[in-house]
Design a protein that fits this description.
By secondary structure, the chain is of the alpha+beta class. It folds into 2 domains: 3-42; 53-146, Immunoglobulin-like. The chain contains 2 helices and 9 strands; from the N terminus they run H-H-E-E-E-E-E-E-E-E-E. It has a 4-stranded antiparallel sheet, with no helix packed on it. Strands 5-8-9 form a 3-stranded antiparallel sheet, with no helix packed on it. A two-stranded antiparallel sheet has the order 3-4. Strand 8 (130-135) and strand 9 (140-146) form a beta hairpin.
Length: 148
Amino acid sequence: MSIGYIKKALLFNKKAISPVIATILVIAITVIITIPIYVYMSSKPEAFPPVSIVVNIDYDEDNQLVNITHQGGDTIFNALSTDPVNEFNILTLIVNSDIPNIASIDGNKDFAPGDTIVVELVDPLQSNDRVKLVYGPRNQLLESTKLL
């Protein structure tokens, strides 16, 4: 075989090179498209991050009122829904593993430091009842108080 023949074969026979170039291009395009999607998805914040909050729960036995006072920490937005009446939205009050019958709730829509949510119960609480406040989206226990 002469060198001229090899040069002609390499210059004019491009069928052997095309599949290799096509494969490399497909892989490169896939990587280029995948990287921005990965970066976007990995930097996306959680929908409901955990909250850091200090809460105090008191019970007014004479009036059957549970007072939930936000003493510091994160503001819980949309804690109460106000349409048509005040009710818990993403917070849940639990008494001894059950949701109590609530007559009314008074408080701000957003639960910020210094705010108090007043919950009027239909049935009175008993001594040794455990009252819990739970942040619903993460099922995070915010406070647990045992009545004396």
